[in-house]
Amino acid sequence: MENIYAKLAQEQLDAYNNQDIEAFLAVYSDDVEILVFPSNELQYKGIELMRERYSNLFKENPNQHAALLSRMTKNNIVIDHEYVTGRANGQEVYAVAMYEVTDGKINKVWFVK
Fold this sequence. Notes:
Organism: Sutcliffiella cohnii
Protein name: Steroid delta-isomerase
Order of helices and strands: HHEEHEEEE
Number of strands: 6
CATH architecture: Roll
InterPro entries: NTF2-like_dom_sf, SnoaL-like, UCP030561
Distance between the termini: 31 Å
Radius of gyration: 13 Å
Oligomer: single chain
Keywords: Isomerase
Pfam families: SnoaL_2 (PF12680)
Helix content: 25-40%
Largest sheet: 6 strands, mixed
Strand content: over 45%
Number of domains: 1
CATH topology: Nuclear Transport Factor 2, Chain: A
Number of helices: 3
């Protein structure tokens, strides 16, 4: 049975692949933090900056798609391993994202560099 944390991660992944910005943002807290792992460097904070960045990403990469290769959860942390294709620059990448869920919303995301 899928837990609530994995459900939120899946909802944002589905919305990302559908390029549905409103559904994508719906699972994030207003003060979401986007960080780099392992340095913990803050890339940006807040739902409005996320809206701007992902709206541009969707516009510039209309065929981009992230295939979920694996997912694990530990308490309120979800770790996804994805294969991203369809980027405008032709580059295909493996990505690892970690999501922390608090009060029913994703409040932190770390992208592994």
